[in-house]
From TrEMBL:
Name under which the protein is recorded: DUF1501 domain-containing protein
PROSITE patterns (UniProt xref): TAT
InterPro entries recorded: Alkaline_phosphatase_core_sf, DUF1501, TAT_signal
SUPFAM superfamilies documented for this protein: Alkaline phosphatase-like (SSF53649)
PANTHER family: BLL7424 PROTEIN, DUF1501 DOMAIN-CONTAINING PROTEIN
Organism of origin: Imperialibacter roseus
Length: 477
């Protein structure tokens, strides 16, 4: 990666690190740390739980849920001819087509809706973690304080459904690979306090190990370790420099994790309890098993669960080369588990109150970097004529059009909302949707008022910037 982009990433992390310290040190009396919209009329909720299926790395809409004209690979084909490298296939909704390899998800679209006109923000240098930060927090980085993840807002405003199950659980993303520190920047509750931050499970296949003592360790020894951990936490930066609220929140988060460890609800992470025929459908890897865990959590009182295909530079959906062959593999990873998650929740009666959202930070295009008319650093060398199949498929980052899928939780069934152009650039051309609308639609379904805010550094901090986000009511039944 070139020096300019590397320097931009370092500057981003420097500013976000400063914001983290500011968030921890900000002094907010607990009595005044209350949502200022407590006197506003309540919103009728249609959902209790949110499951976010995160396609980390930039999922090309024209290769997945919004296929365009198909051009098969032949040696010597011109790059400009390629709009989709997969043929389209029908779904359960008349007139709605997905690309080949997503037949299972297509079969459950009569239970949900698709937004085909999502447009990512123009953030200058296109860095995945900057756009992921923006998607998950609704705030453009950097901020003077640490903006809370959408899951943290939901956990704070609504609290747990089941007091034993952590209200915000994030699965599938490790912080030991690639841009780990940048990813940590938005996996946080920020100024809301540690108790509303994510309960992290990097590998869902080992989820049970996250909520019980290590093998061979007695309960007595584990309790001694837990006490030692509390003593170390008391010496942490938050405990030494944070406000009373931040210190109390940290201790409550530790107590919550310990309570789960000793509860019958911890068995929700034991995937061996699933029937083999169901388990086998979900067992496509860590993401698939994350979907299975999310199903079990939703049925047992989780509030917000995210599952990531995991962002690691140049892997997964980050298709800088071998785009077509990589997407074939990614479709196999998600198609069965996502569809089965929808089916299982529907059959159990939980889908009505569970909102499932499938999204990515931006899309991809073979020729355009960013969006038309906005010059940004080109990060991929795409030849005009393809002589090697590794250049077949969408490579460059494209922020001018993307797809988001939604099911359950009051979402209309069989709805197609918005449109992108059928010719390059395949930009949003009808009912464009941006991130604050996505967040506010989710909050609206949950009954969280758009005026929800907290006073931070002497100014109101809303769920969406300046409280201006508007729900896309056309998506709701």
């Amino acid at each position: 990666m070139n020096d300019e982009i590397t320097n931009s990433r370092r500057e981003f992390m420097k500013k976000m690190g400063a914001a983290s310290l500011a968030a921890a040190a900000v002094s907010i009396p607990t009595a005044s740390f209350l949502s200022s919209c407590s006197t506003t009329p309540a919103i009728h909720s249609t959902a209790d739980t949110v499951i976010l299926l995160w396609m980390a790395g930039g999922m090309a809409h024209t290769e997945t849920f919004d296929p365009k004209a198909y051009t098969p690979y032949t040696k010597g084909v011109e790059s400009k001819r390629i709009l989709s490298s997969f043929p389209k296939v029908p779904t359960a909704v008349d007139g709605l087509y997905f690309s080949k390899g997503l037949e299972s998800i297509g079969s459950v679209m009569d239970k949900g809706a698709i937004i085909r006109s999502y447009k990512s923000a123009d953030l200058g240098h296109i860095l995945h973690t900057r756009h992921q930060y923006h998607w998950h927090t609704c705030y453009e980085p950097p901020q003077s304080v640490q903006a809370p993840h959408i899951g943290a807002w939901i956990a704070k405003e609504l609290g747990p459904v089941n007091p034993v199950i952590p209200p915000f659980i994030a699965m599938g993303q490790r912080f030991t690979v690639g841009e780990g520190e940048e990813l940590k920047a938005f996996h946080t509750a920020g100024f809301l306090g540690s108790e509303y931050g994510p309960f992290l499970i990097p590998d869902p296949s080992s989820g049970l190990e996250s909520v019980r003592p290590p093998q061979g360790m007695s309960i007595k020894r584990f309790e001694a370790r837990n006490q030692l951990y509390k003593e170390l936490a008391n010496k942490s930066e938050v405990m030494e420099r944070g406000s009373d609220y931040q210190r109390e929140s940290l201790m409550r988060s530790m107590e919550q994790s310990y309570r789960l460890l000793n509860s019958p609800e911890s068995q929700v992470f034991d995937l061996t309890q699933e029937p083999k025929e169901k388990y086998d459908i979900y067992n496509t890897g860590r993401f698939g098993l994350g979907c299975l865990t999310a199903k079990r959590l939703a049925m047992n009182g989780a509030r917000f669960v995210s599952i990531s295909t995991e962002y690691e530079p140049f892997l997964g959906w980050d298709t800088h080369e071998n785009g077509h062959t990589r997407v074939v593999k990614m479709k196999k990873l998600i198609d069965g588990p996502v569809a089965q998650l929808v089916k299982d929740l529907d059959e159990s009666g939980h889908l009505d109150r569970t909102l499932i959202v499938l999204a990515s930070e931006f899309s991809r295009d073979a020729l355009l970097e960013g969006r038309p008319g906005e010059k940004v650093q080109d990060q991929v060398n795409q030849p005009d004529v393809i002589e090697d199949e590794k250049f077949y498929g969408m490579h460059r980052h494209f922020t001018d059009g993307s797809s988001i899928l939604m099911w359950g939780g009051g979402i209309k069934k069989g709805l197609v909302y918005g449109k992108t152009a059928d010719e390059r650039p395949c930009s949003s051309i009808e009912n464009t949707v941006v991130i604050d609308q996505i967040h506010q639609t989710i909050y609206h379904a949950l009954g969280i008022h758009p005026e929800t805010n907290y006073t931070i550094e002497g100014r109101p901090f809303y769920t969406t910037p300046d409280g201006q986000g508007k729900a896309v009511l056309e998506l709701l039944a």
